[in-house]
Every structure is written in C-alpha cells, then in structure tokens.
Amino acid sequence: MGCCLSALEPARLQLLGRPDAELPDADDALSVESLPPGAVRADVPWSSLLHRRYHAEGAFSQVFLAVLDAEAVALKILKEDAAENELARRDLEHEARLLASLSHRHVVRLLGCGTHSSRPFLLLEPLAATLASSLPKPFPDHATICEHYAARARWPRRRAASVAVQLSRALRYLHAECAFAPLLHRDLKPDNVGFAAAGRVVLFDFGLARESGAADDAPRALTGKTGSTRYMSPEVALCKPYNSKADVFSFATLLWQMLAHERPFSGMSVSDFEQKVALGGHRPKISSSWPPQLQQLLSECWEVDAHKRPPFVQIVPRLEAVLRDLTLPADVRARANA
C-alpha cells in the first residue's frame, strides 16, 4: 500500500522529468527587464527588508514576514539547499512574471522582487491567516458534542459560501479574463488560500500555475500528478491530458471540506486514491442537509468527464445566489422555500 495522503499533503510536482514544453523560459531572469514596466519594485535591496522573521516553508522555498519602508510584506525566497536547483529557481521566477501581470482583488499581489546570496526572492502582500489554519480541525473520537458544535458554529455554511464566492471569482479571472487566460492554478488547497484585511479571500502560490496553451482550453498534455493528491482531479492523477476543468474538480473538493468540516479522503493511500477516486468514481459524501443548489453544484464539478463540469463563469453566479439565500434571515428563507 502506498503512503497515506496525510503524509503527502504538501506533495507537489516532481521537478525532475517534467516535459520541456512546460518549463519556464530559461533565458528569462528575475530582473527589471523581465517584468512589466512599473508593475512592481525590482531589485529590492536585501538590507532594506527589516525585522525579518520566519513564517512558513514549502518544498523549495521559505516565507518570512518583514517590513519594507514601514509596510509589512511577505518574503518568499528559495531555500539555501534549493539555490542550485535550476528548475526550482525558474519556477519562482515564472511565478513572479505571472503575478506581475495579474491584477485581481482575490489574487495575491506581487509588491517587489530581488536577489539575496544568488537566491531570488519575491515580496508579496501579507496575509493574516490561511484557510488551512482557519478551518475546524478534525476532532478525536472522544470529543464532546459541545466541542463539535462550537467548531461548526465558527464555520457556518454562510461563511463557507462567502469564501467559495470570492475564490471562484479569482478562478474565473484566471480562466477567462486575465492576459494569460486560460491560466491553470493546478494546486488548489486550503494551504494556498489566505485571508487579507477585513477577511478578503486571496489565492496565492502560483509556482505550479501554467497557461493552458490552447485558446479554446482544449485538454493538453501537461504534467500529471501535479499539485496535492487529495484535491487532484482524476485526469491529473492518471497523467491524462487536462485543462482548466481540473481546477474545477479541486475547487469542489475544497468547497466540500468547508461545508463538511472534514478532510477529504482522510486515511486513504495514494494508490487507493488512484483506484477508488480517479478510476472508481468515489467522491466524498454530499449531505442532504446542505442547500440543494450546493449539492447539485458539487455533483457537477466532480463529474468524471471533465467536459461536463461547469466553468467558473457559470459557477460564480450560482454561488452568489446561494450566498444571497444563506444571508437572508431564517424565517425569510423558510417562507421562500415553503
């Protein structure tokens, strides 16, 4: 049996063996010339970043919080042991060029970039928390009913719907509106969704994001097994051609987690995931107590046939309607549904 998904939560694309067609341009450098004019501050001196303190890390980079010109920033830099990893470096530079050309209130903002000890770094807008750190944690079997109720009260359906609406707007922008559209994020998961000021939802970590390469968003032979396994679409898990509908599947799994207060496919091994989910069509249980519109949307987004999954230009208004309904007072909702 393969490793448990919990052990591979941060599992990402294996850099070695990636098709050359998908690699960022090796000739591009993280410099003033490689970024849109006036878009961000380039060549930021390392010495100007004050009060640096460790915050988090991924497979190839670390994130620090710092202060630049009296403003808080998030500093993302390659790890020392990844400094000579050319593909990791090119991924970070690729992320910088993408973010420099993206502008949406629910997509993380690139504020600047630079180099320290031959390691490129990005300066991003700071976030107060991530969705992963905000969601209720799984309870042990001996947890009381009151503990379960308190956790669920912090994440009511209305809050889940609000986060889903904002995140879906970001994905609609990437898939249908930005200069690179359709741009696939390819690593949707709670760890890559954050909260900025006033609870604004922000999608970040574009290290694996890639242009579809097809104006009609036709499935393309991009690298399989890209992203985090428990949120991966069947076609990506099975290394088949895919398009933006892979993000739709991942989004639905994330939405289910917000509604169910459980981790999807918990305890399932990678081999089990491939057999039961990717090949067998197994999906998380949809509660009959959830709004019918959400039940239907989840089912559609989890279709085995990616062509049958709705695009985000359709998902956004459907979620907005759900949120409006959930925002109504309980008695008004009851009369409307009578």
From TrEMBL:
GO terms, molecular function: ATP binding; protein serine/threonine kinase activity
Keywords annotated in UniProt: ATP-binding, Kinase, Nucleotide-binding, Transferase
Positions of the Protein kinase domain: 49-323
InterPro entries associated with the record: Kinase-like_dom_sf (IPR011009), Prot_kinase_dom (IPR000719), Ser-Thr/Tyr_kinase_cat_dom (IPR001245), Ser/Thr_Kinases-Pseudokinases (IPR051681)
Matches recorded under Pfam families: PK_Tyr_Ser-Thr
Domain of life from the UniProt record: Eukaryota
Keyword field contains Nucleus: no
Membrane spanning residue stretches: none
Protein name according to UniProt: Protein kinase domain-containing protein
Organism, scientific name: Prymnesium parvum
